[in-house]
# Entry
Amino acid sequence: MRVLLTGAAGFIGSHIHRALADAGDEVVAADLMLAAAHGPAAETPAGVHRVDVRDPDAMAALLHGIDVVCHQAAVVGAGVSAADAPAYASHNDLGTAVLLAAMAEAGVRQLVLASSMVVYGEGHYRTSDSVPVVPAPRRREDLDRGIFDYPDPVTAEPLRWAEIDEDGPLRPRSLYAASKVAQEHYAGAWATATGGTVTALRYHNVYGDDMPRDTPYSGVAAIFRSALEAGESPRVFEDGAQMRDFVHVRDIAAANAAAIHRPLPGFVPLNVSSGTPITIREVAELLARAHDGKPPVVTGEYRSGDVRHIVASPERARKLLDFTAAISPAEGLAEFATAPLRATSGAGTPQWR
# Structure
């Protein structure tokens, strides 16, 4: 297969590049090398085209002879402030729209899209009687009192989390999440208009070697790791009982390779997760023990936009792609505690022009 890989120099993209090369695919690698992701002085790696997916001429030139596009290029993170909105809309949404138009013109009809669990917003919840319920937003006065779980609207008992599958409603709660929903919608409409195929891989919490160091846009695993390297305790928000799914970047790369080699008809979203839920406190404890560092501190602090629990069902990816994550969070996080991180990390707010 001849694959155009956008975002090829990034954390996830570089792992996908290696996985595809190992599988014998020919990779045409592209990356804009944004300072917010790579640092202000980062050099473009050998073999990577430094191009902007928002440039239709550049995309047209790279798409000649391409069989499938694996689209990883994006501004990532939750969005530090409302001022980040144009960057997400420009790089993620406009960039995807330009790429899709160029693919249609070039006759390329298969896309593997990097999406995210953030499109769901909150996860699924059930009452103690297993009745599905959509909770009301958490109240600031409850959070200030250390009450972090959603209450049952009838009994006031804490609601129980449940796995969310790909049919769950999309309720984005951050700027980044809104941009990923828009990317999915553009891709789905493109598939309908062109007869193309789109597999949208909804990544859950990704971590692993070569991850960027602590920045406002880093994942929590990297933030904990950076604290330990500085001789500090990882600071865990709320009560640490927030449930998540952490999936190793090598499994993410394997899922992309599977999606590239097994195109599915139309638009198909798939959760990519380890299938082994873990609390944020457990993540911090695992990393601290493996790093031989200070134990985590549960602070009771909170961020009002954070979700309480989000755990995915990996069953559809197993059935449709024959993909199952190979690395458990316990094994992967212990490795990550001392794995090499990027020598340079992103700098500054992502620019959108």
